[in-house]
Amino acid sequence: MSEKKDVVIIGAGPAGIQAAIHAVRKKCDVLLLGRIERSALYAAHVENYACVDGVKTGQELLEAGISQVRHFGASLMDDDVLKIHQEADGFSLDLEGGSTVATRTIIFANGTSRKKLKVPGEKEFFGRGVSYCVDCDANFFRNATVAVVGNASAAIDGALTLTGYASKVYLISRNLVASPGLLKKLGESAVESVTGTWVSEIQGDDAVQSLLLEDGDEISLDGLFIELGAKGAMELALEIGIQLDMDTMSHIETNKKTETNVAGVYAAGDITGHPYQMAKAVGEGCVAGLEAANFAKKQKREEDA
Amino acid sequence: MSEKKDVVIIGAGPAGIQAAIHAVRKKCDVLLLGRIERSALYAAHVENYACVDGVKTGQELLEAGISQVRHFGASLMDDDVLKIHQEADGFSLDLEGGSTVATRTIIFANGTSRKKLKVPGEKEFFGRGVSYCVDCDANFFRNATVAVVGNASAAIDGALTLTGYASKVYLISRNLVASPGLLKKLGESAVESVTGTWVSEIQGDDAVQSLLLEDGDEISLDGLFIELGAKGAMELALEIGIQLDMDTMSHIETNKKTETNVAGVYAAGDITGHPYQMAKAVGEGCVAGLEAANFAKKQKREEDA
Questions:
Q1: Which residue intervals of B167-234 are DSSP H helices?
Q2: What is the pLDDT of residues B111-127, one digit of tens each?
Q3: Could you tell me which residues are beta bridge partners of residue B225?
Q4: Which of A76, A195, B208, B258 could join B204 in a cystine, given CB atoms 3.0 to 4.6 angstroms apart?
């Protein structure tokens, strides 16, 4: 086993990158685990990150971030964590590659995995008409025709939001379940609800052009929002007793300092909940990196004493 | 008086810019008040903002941000708020230029004014050797000679932090006041404490080269950190009953949603407290912009009902 790390960050998206930058600049020994391709940002287009003008691809932003992380001297490892063991003065992580890493602190920055439709075209057109985030991408579909697919309030909310941007909004559901108030609002809106069916294929060439539905119908459109809810990437966190957000039960509960209920464990980015925005992720990553660095330094002093 | 705004943001630094971007993309009528030259970021050099590689000037980052704000359609006004009046369904703001603006929500993003030394050279060399933030800029002074000026624990903390970066650290104070523990730590550190005097002039050509002290001594160095504490830019906030952070009494108290104790009023960036980092500011700006937009939309529906 190598020297004990001060800070291990799980997840190389914007939250993890920002946490690594701040922790390593505090002269900590920092390991960033993961790869940028796993970040929800990777296939996205970003135009709303303050002080970065124009539209950038998630890939180019993340590559710039990794270059910063390397420049400041954090270690990077493309490996997965299999299991976390809590120990007397920190944690040890079993990695899929077979190695074990000891650390004084952990930052969970591994995002949420959006539930997938699992239909042909979903993967190919992600970022080219297929989106998992209305709040992030509605603005790209001004005056376009779009659909939302999903059965719960998240899908209805998404469709209602989109009516403020797109010229035509479909809501495709097998069986809508939501509050009477929300269903009433949907009924009064411009959304065209298509119920009792489901998306069976997403078609297009360079970008999405149409949907095939299970009942055989076809809808021509420019974008599909998949709103099936989010699955937390947090099984590891649960194993060491991290508390979830009681409202959603699918995010890690943190305070303003990004602390979880377990001392020395922090969380930042989508995994702590909405809004799923790059700016919110880097803001929490900044705080988590600085807080974890302070915690690790204090603990190291105690170990040395 | 013009049409009522949904969101008025006070302060055109990174927090205000990010808040404007997110609120206007929610289809709100947004006014951003202020000018980038007033932001603490303006004269700074930034290398730690995730996914923006290399060293950028604060000026170029803020100009890019303003270009985004214009692109998405927020209004910009270079004016100061003289007074805020709380009304039945929002606020009205008297501006120095003589106009009045009505709004459903307010976001305070006007930073903190660092207390100034008020000596020759301070203004000229700000960003060229003179800094008000050890955490932000320590990394630029690796193996350099630096000084911190100040009389309280913030100055001692700053000097101790700098020993991890600079090769030589002076602490200049008239009369150090801090806890026995911190004074002991200072005594055991590599910091050279120069007490009973004060900085009378900062000298250099392109960048800082030396300090003149009141007792006539001169110190050759590369950087001076001015740590006199922060003066909140929040008189306006106090007038409408905004609660301060009880720990520092110089920041606005907010929760994770950036809400203050007054409904419809949010705060983001340095004005909510440490860390004084661009990433933390945009993270809070993002949340504040989205929360204020939601609040304004809800209120507008009530007004229309």
A1: 180-188
A2: 987 788 999 999 999 98
A3: B131, B148
A4: B208
Alpha-carbon distance of B39 to A25, in angstroms, equals: 23
Contacts of B281 in chain A (CB under 8 A): 283
The alpha-carbon radius of gyration of chain B (Å, integer) is: 21
Averaged over A254-264, what is the pLDDT?
A: 96
Number of other residues whose CB lies within 10 A of the CB of residue A142: 10
d(CA A34, CA B269): 29
d(CA B74, CA B31): 6
Q: Percent of chain A at pLDDT above 90?
A: 74
Size of interface A-B (CB pairs under 8 A): 123
Cβ density class B276-305: b for 16+ within 10 Å, e for less: bbbbbbbbbbbbbbbbbbebbbebbeeeee
Which residues of A are less than 8 Å from B71 in CB distance?
A: 53
Instruction: Give the DSSP H or E segment for A10.
Output: strand A5-10
Average pLDDT of chain A? 92
The 10 Å Cβ neighbour count of residue B257 is: 12
**Residue A64 contacts B where some CB pair is shorter than 8 Å:** yes
Structure tokens at A9: 């960050």
Residue B146 · residue B224 · CB < 8 Å: yes
Contacts of B10 (CB under 8 A, 6+ apart): B16, B33, B34, B81, B106, B107, B108, B109, B110, B236
Task: Average the pLDDT over each of A19-33, A61-75, B129-143, B186-200 and give the range with the smallest value.
Answer: B129-143
Q: Is A48 on the interface with B (CB under 8 A)?
A: yes
CA distance A59 to A57: 5
CB contact B17 to A (< 8 Å) = yes
What domains can be seen in chain A, in order of their start residue? 5-113+230-304 (3.50.50.60), 116-226 (3.50.50.60)
Q: How far apart are CA A168 and CA B89, in angstroms?
A: 33
B-chain residues within 8 Å CB-CB of A293? Answer: none
Q: Please tell me if residue A277 touches chain B, with a CB cutoff of 8 Å.
A: yes
CB B11 within 8 A of CB B33: yes
Q: Which of B51, B162, B247, B282 to mutate to test the interface with A (most CBs of A within 10 A)?
A: B51
A68 contact B CB<8A: yes
Is the bond leading into A275 cis (omega within 30 degrees of zero)? yes
Within 167-226 of B, beta carbons closer than 8 Å to A belong to: none
Cβ <8 Å between A287 and B281 = no
Q: What is the pLDDT of residue A237?
A: 84
Helix, strand, coil % in chain A, rounded to nearest 5: 30, 30, 40
